[in-house]
Inverse folding.
């Protein structure tokens, strides 16, 4: 088990000034990944996300090769497993002139990866729509605040419902359902998580039907199972949403995990 903890900016040890600018402006985006033996499942998807969001927020191009170099330096050959977060911000960003094109800075934070819990989740629904859902941005206050509200109400986490009373996503995770024949992904604005994308690729590769369609909160009782997916835990069963309970199907969850694992690791 690794004990590494490291924070670097552009491949160098972080300076206080870097963190001051990041904290004061709080404008940027990030991606989070699990690294084992210098490899990441879905690495190219993470890099594509960072490049796409940098263009949208800063108007500049982010070199994926530079990001990989920063990652290699930060993990320093540690076999892991590691929890790694890549934040993209800009020390040149001026909030008085936010449309100016500026170069991006890459902050990498490395920590030992914890063992995620495997108990089925009980989640509470809230009406909330993520701001700019196509970007994994640093505006995470409402995500954790709704998780806090869910915990105060006796649940484990928060599930978001859009203005049409349809399911979109969880606080920091995507949600999927199973109707007995197909895996169903909610058709609503949401952050397209890397683990969700890997599951979709794996399901298609393994010839398992999956589709995107609207999931009304009032109709969730029609589904046999529901599950959580994110970078720290690709598959976790959901036992209850509000007062609706779901069967815990070990075989179904194992199938999902097998489809996810059909994606190859990519070396940083």
């Amino acid at each position: 088990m690794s004990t590494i903890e490291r924070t670097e900016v552009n491949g160098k040890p972080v300076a206080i000034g870097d963190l001051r600018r990041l904290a004061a402006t709080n404008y940027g985006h990030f991606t989070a990944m699990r690294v084992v033996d210098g490899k990441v499942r879905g690495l190219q998807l993470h890099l594509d996300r960072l490049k796409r969001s940098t263009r949208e927020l800063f108007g500049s191009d982010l070199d994926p090769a530079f990001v990989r170099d920063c990652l290699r330096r930060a993990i320093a050959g540690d076999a892991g497993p590691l929890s790694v977060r890549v934040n993209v911000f800009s020390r040149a960003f001026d909030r008085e002139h936010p449309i100016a094109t500026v170069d991006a800075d890459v902050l990498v934070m490395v920590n030992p990866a914890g063992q995620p819990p495997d108990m089925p989740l009980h989640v509470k629904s809230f009406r909330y729509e993520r701001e700019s859902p196509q970007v994994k941005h640093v505006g995470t206050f409402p995500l954790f605040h709704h998780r806090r509200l869910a915990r105060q109400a006796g649940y484990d986490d928060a599930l978001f419902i859009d203005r049409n009373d349809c399911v979109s996503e969880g606080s920091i995770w995507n949600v999927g359902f199973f109707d007995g024949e197909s895996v169903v992904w909610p058709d609503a604005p949401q952050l397209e998580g890397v683990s969700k994308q890997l599951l979709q690729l794996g399901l298609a590769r393994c010839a398992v039907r999956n589709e995107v369609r609207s999931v009304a909160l009032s109709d969730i009782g029609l589904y046999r199972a529901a599950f959580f997916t994110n970078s720290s835990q690709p598959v976790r069963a959901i036992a209850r949403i509000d007062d609706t309970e779901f069967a815990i199907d070990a075989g179904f969850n194992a199938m999902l995990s097998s489809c996810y694992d059909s994606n190859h690791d990519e070396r940083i």
Notes: The two ends are 20 Å apart (CA to CA). Residues 43-58 form the longest helix (16 residues). Residues 88 and 106 are 5 Å apart (CA to CA). The chain has a mean pLDDT of 95.
